[in-house]
Amino acid sequence: MSDPVLIVDRVARVATLTLNRPDAMNALSSALRDAIARAFRELEQDDAVRVAIVTGAGRAFCAGYDLKELASGATGDTADSAASDMADAIAAFSGPIIGAINGHAITGGFELALACDVLIASREARFADTHARVGILPGWGLSQKLPRMIGISRAKEISLSGNFVDAEQALAWGLVNRVVAPLELLPTCHRLAADMASCVPGVLESYKRLIDDGMGMSLADALAMESERAHASAAATHAADIASRREGVVDRGRSKSV
Q: Is the pLDDT of residue 237 over 80?
């Protein structure tokens, strides 16, 4: 029996997804893309899971799409359509996603990393965007997300050269939050995930959505949105408190009458 292409471990309120095609540098085959999409849809329906971690087995995080599979036409996919279902499923996950970048994150693998909310890198991590070298344009947000993260000139240097950026350079440019020793990568990510998962239920997800929605707006519109949602949240909390107090009064009344 062959090994699964994706391993999903649930511990407490955190799910760790490990891309498990180490011999192929975790390239995104059709089976792996489908497994990732299915896993994130299932996690979104699991109320016990609040945070996800994505990492890779072996020496790579993800080497991008499985180009041999795409070239063969065996799946009917093209480079443009290959990740749409996977991307939609990841984007629909309401909790934070931490990318534990253990090694090479190349092109489609770079895009997978950028789909995460927070990136923690091993010292062995390396990033590259080779779209221009292989003759295709990105279709999963890399051309728009990367400049917003590290600045337009740095993004152009990466994407228009195809050159690798090592972990320390990625840290200096703001691409990753921190760089740790390889053996500390997953423990560090799990500690951060546990901190996130300990936040107030509902607020964690709403706060992530608030930040993401605001990034696509002008500052004035984003501030107005924040104010509107803050007032709505406060009103909902106040209503819940009143309902809870009323329920307490009813319970005390019942206990006295017994």
A: no
pLDDT of residue 69: 78
Angle between helices 152-159 and 142-150 (to 10 degrees): 130
User: Do residues 132 and 159 touch, judged by C-beta distance below 8 A?
Assistant: yes
Please identify which residue in the block is written with the tokens 């996130």.
Answer: 196
- Model confidence pTM above 0.85: yes
Mind listing the pLDDT tens digit for each residue in 189-204? 999 999 999 999 899 9
- Judged against a pLDDT cut of 50, whether residue 250 lies above it is answered with no
DSSP string covering 68-93, please? HHHHHTSS---TTTTTHHHHHHHHT-
Is the dihedral angle over the CA atoms 56, 31, 163, 129 positive or is it negative?
A: negative
- The CATH code that applies to domain 6-197 is 3.90.226.10
Question: Please, what's the b/e burial string for 49-66 (b: 16 or more CB within 10 A of its CB; e: otherwise)?
Answer: bbbbbbbbbbebbbbbbb
Tokens of 192: 């951060």
Q: Are 96 and 117 in contact (CB under 8 A)?
A: yes
Under a CB-based contact definition with an 8 Å cutoff, are residues 104 and 63 in contact? Answer: yes
- What sign for the dihedral angle of Cα 167, 168, 171, 173? negative
**What residues contact residue 248 under an 8 Å CB cut-off, 6+ apart?**
none
Could you report the per-residue pLDDT of 50-108, keeping only the tens digit for each?
A: 999 999 999 999 999 887 877 776 655 555 555 678 999 999 999 999 999 999 999 99
Say what the alpha-carbon torsion angle 194, 199, 205, 210 is, to the nearest 10 degrees. Answer: -120
- Enter the DSSP assignment of 28: B
> How far is the C-alpha of 199 from the C-alpha of 203, rounded, in Å?
7
CA distance 52 to 43: 8
